[in-house]
Structure prediction request, 357 residues.
Amino acid sequence: MAAHRKPRQRSLSGNTARTAATIALAGAATATGFDGTSHAEPQLTPTQVKAKVDKLYQEAEVATEKYDGAKEKADAAEKKLGTLRDEAARKTEKLNSAREALGYVAAAQYRSGGIDPAVQLMLSDDPEQYLDGAEFADRVGHRQTAAVALVRQQLREIEQLRGAAHIELTSLKSRQAELGRQKKTINGKLDQARRLLSTLPPQQRAQVGEASGSGRASRSSTTARGALAAPGSSAAAADAPNSRAAAAVSYAYQKLGSPYVWGATGPNAFDCSGLVQAAYSSAGVSLPRTTYAQINAGQRVSRSELRPGDLVFFYSGISHVGIYVGDGQMIHAPNPTAPVRLAPIDEMPFAGATRVV
Prediction:
C-alpha cells in the first residue's frame, strides 16, 4: 500500500503575508470599533460647551434646592427629636421620684402589716392615739392610690413621648438619606461641568465660565465684594416698596463678590435661595429656605410691576431666584463659576416674581 502522507503546508510569500495581515488588522479594527474615524468623539465648540455646562449647572441647582429643602426638614426633625427626648428625661426623673415615694409607703406597710388592727388596739398604751393613727393611715392610703394613678399616667406619657421620638428619628434618617442622594447628584453634575470646561483652552474656558455665570452682566460688578454698593444700593433702596425691601437690597449689594457655595446661607458664601433668605433675614423677615417655598412667601407681582427688593424666579421648575434691584437687573448667586453679582433678569427663563410684604 502506498504510504499516506500529509500534504505539505505552503508558506506565505511576502506579498501574501502582507495582504493577510492587512485584512486581519482591518477586521480587528472593524470588530472593536477602533477604525480611527467613525467612533471618534467630536470636539465641542465653546458655544456647545457653554450650552452643556449651563444645563448641568441648572440641573445641579434643581438638586441643590431639593437638598436645601431636605436639610430644612432634617434640622426641624432633629430639633423636635431633641425636645421630645428632653421632655421624656424630665418626666422619667419625676417618675423615679414618685416611685421612690411609693417605695417608702410600701416598706412602712410591710413592717406593720402583719399585726391585726384589733390586736394593735388592745396592745396599744394609748388607744385614742392609735385610732388617730389609723385615721392617718387611711388618709395615707388614699394618697397612695392617687400616687399610683400618677405613676401610671406618667408611664403612659413617657411611652407616648418615646413613640413620638421614634417617629421623628425615622423621619430624620429619611431626610439624611435624601441629603446624601441630592449631594451625590449635585457633585456629579458639577464634576461633569468641570470636565467639559477642562476640554477648552484657558482663555475660552474663562469666557465660557463668565458667560455661564452672568450672561451680559458687567464683569466689573464682581471684581471686589460690594464694589458697586455705594452708587447702586441707595438708588435701588429709595425706590423699594417698603423699608424691609430696602434693607434686603442694601444687604445684597454688600454681598457682591461673595462666592457661590451650594447649601450656603452666608454670611460669606451663598447659593441662590440662601442669599435671598439671608438678605431678608437682615431686614427682620423670616423667609423659607427653598425657591419653591419662597415664591409663595409674599404677594405675586407681574414683570411690569417689579420694584427693588422683589424676588424674581426662573425656569419652569422655579429652581433659581434673585433679588430685583431696578433697571431690569437683579443680584443673584449664579453657580460655582461665578460669585454673587449683578445680572439682567432676561438672561434666564423668567418664571414669576413675589413681593415680600
Notes: Residues 217-355 form a domain with the endopeptidase fold (from Nostoc punctiforme) fold (CATH 3.90.1720.10). The chain has two domains: 46-198, 217-355. Residues 15-41, 214-230 have pLDDT under 50 and may be disordered.
